[in-house]
Amino acid sequence: MMLGVWSLLLLWGLMTPCQGLLETVGTLARIDKDELGKAIQNSLVGGPILQNVLGTVTSVNHGILGSGGLLGGGGLLSNGGVFGVVGKLSGLKIEELTLPKVSLRLLPGFGVQLNLHTKVGLHGSGPLGGLLQLEVEVNVSSRVGLGVSSRGTPILVLKSCSTLLGHISLLSGLLPAPLFGIVEQTVFKMLPGLLCPVVDSVLGVVNELLSCALSLVPLGALGSVEFSLATLPLISNQYIELDINPIIKSAAGDIIDFPKPPAPVKVPPKEDHTSQVTVPLYLFNTVFGLLQTNGALNIDITSKQVPNNVPLTTTDLAALVPEALGKLPPGQQLMLSLRVKEVPSVILQNKKATVSIPADIYVLSYVPKGTPEALFELNGVITLNAQLTPSATKLHISLSLERLNVKLASSFAHAFDASRLEEWLSDVIRAAYVPKLNVDLDVGIPLPKVLNVNFANAVLEIIENAIVLTVKS
């Protein structure tokens, strides 16, 4: 397993960051280094990672201060002189560990330079009696590689770690000057083995957050989206880039493959201290394709589904196209049967999102508990404006009718100019059909969850064949 990880790390190190073209139809996530720093800092707050470090560093029976050590009972300098008091020095324990200050630097072609600056509080019994309290400034310096785990998720791997001791302060107790250097050497020798595991634990928490980006997201009754890495992770000096491939599955578990854009998406550059996710047109097409396949875009509209100010009787129809009624009496109820037999098309361009739904509209006379009687059939195109709003987990879609175009397909009475019905039909569709669509679209477009970056307050930009969400770190 580790061989596979390191092989991927080696391959990744030879790659260069994306130059602005998203060649695949995937979701492109660019996570700013500030977000990585926040994730690391948050992993240290309130968790068990720092608590696990507290405990014994050394005692009189271990290490260079022990009975068999350099200064122990049989040691080189143990008999007589000032160093004889070392036998009275009891075990040092880490009683306090200040919340580390995190600093990091992204290393293009390698990974991350991660530094944790902290203060370690050591307590023990002094060689001259009484409580001995020391405070040591420590900088933990580590190099971390970015690659792909055996599960196919982004992973940070610790490659090297070292500690650099800063100022050592004696807060209480007595410690002869010659012993101070010995204690300093002991602490220097022991702390890497205690503090470098902190880095490994932190990376474990962050890797869990990274793995959440590649998960199965439900699409209600429509199916699900499974995110996976399309390419190896890339890194620049400001951000980590993940090209995430959305795999769409129907409710039955079948992979859905709708037509993809013919040209790559031109992704705009990312500003410093911002994170960015690009949502491709493909995801929009797929959601509407699933709605069409499931029959969710079809509807039968009667007078019960429209308000009183939207008439749906033969009397109202006669005022518009009397030749279409034949011998039907006035005052009889109508039913509109709308059927969508082709996948709607979504257009993302010119800072606007538009949905075009081709529909066959059947107008029938309707008698409750009776058999509807067809009057005529229309071929229509329903054009809707899409208002897009991001939340923490998905991109919400709310539709409003822009226009309706219809032409007569067939009539059981006389031919007529169908354009005279467009305003009336628009009122019906606006009142009954658009609200239904918005309920069905409540599933939204799922966003990958990377390092808990919240895109709820992101700036949304509509570009050619994609949506770009940008949030400040």
From TrEMBL:
InterPro entries: Bactericidal_perm-incr_a/b_dom (IPR017943), BPI_fold-BPI/LBP (IPR051660), Lipid-bd_serum_glycop_C (IPR001124), Lipid-bd_serum_glycop_N (IPR017942). Residues 271-471 form the Lipid-binding serum glycoprotein C-terminal domain. Keywords: Disulfide bond, Glycoprotein, Secreted, Signal. It comes from the Eukaryota. Residues 30-272 form the Lipid-binding serum glycoprotein N-terminal domain. Belongs to the BPI/LBP/Plunc superfamily. BPI/LBP family. This is BPI fold-containing family B member 3. It comes from Chrysochloris asiatica. The lineage of its organism: Eukaryota, Metazoa, Chordata, Craniata, Vertebrata. The gene is BPIFB3.
